[in-house]
Specification:
Rossmann fold; alpha/beta; four-stranded mixed beta sheet; 13% strand; globular
């Protein structure tokens, strides 16, 4: 079992590899290995360029979610009043920065269960919460979670994204839409996004 959020990402990528992790425009579908790479490349940029102290990103794009996981992997706290994640790390010139590689790998022995993740949550406490939530939800690697992209900017959406990562589920960010069968008749929409189970967690 993972002892911190960095290990969670590593273990899920090793276990699920080419299984779908995240689908969103304009990226398409990222496998768990590809999601881990994207997170770690942002982490290298953070290790090279990030100011000290808590971080936050509010670009309104999926980069915010990747940056949050990357910050956790670096042992950095994530909070709304924190310093803004440098845009250079989000697909810019510091993305996959060789200058941050050693600093990032040095954190492997520093980040632990007692490392603060968010206000009120250490890595270990958040993993325990995700484990309890996963028992209730019954999610696993066969689960498909569909959320509108804008939900990812909410605390409930971010908690759901962490739950999907914990379960090894497939997170698809798209707005509900009706498709049509061969006769031109609309098919039922997927169930709408329900944040109820994730309220008050983050």
């Amino acid at each position: 079992m993972a002892v911190n959020l960095r290990h969670l990402l590593i273990q899920q990528a090793a276990r699920l590899q080419h299984a779908p992790a995240l689908a969103v425009e304009p990226w398409g579908t990222l496998s768990y290995l590809e999601f881990r790479n994207r997170v770690e490349w942002v982490a290298l940029g953070l290790s090279a360029r990030a100011p000290g102290g808590p971080l936050h990103a509010a670009t309104g794009t999926p980069w915010d979610w990747v940056a949050e996981v990357a910050a956790a992997c670096c042992g950095l706290e994530w909070r709304p009043e924190g310093s803004t994640v440098p845009s250079e790390a989000l697909g810019g010139p510091a993305f996959n920065s060789e200058a941050g590689r050693q600093a990032y790998h040095d954190q492997e022995d520093v980040v632990n269960a007692d490392t603060l993740f968010r206000p009120g949550w250490t890595h270990g406490a958040w993993l325990s919460q995700l484990q309890r939530l996963n028992r209730t939800l019954g999610w696993d690697h066969r689960t498909l979670l569909v959320m509108p992209p804008e939900a990812l900017a909410t605390p409930e959406g971010r908690a759901a994204a962490w739950s999907a990562l914990y379960a090894g589920a497939f997170l698809r960010l798209e707005r509900p839409r009706r498709s049509r069968n061969g006769l031109g008749r609309p098919l039922p929409m997927l169930p709408s996004w329900d944040p109820t189970a994730f309220q008050g967690l983050l």
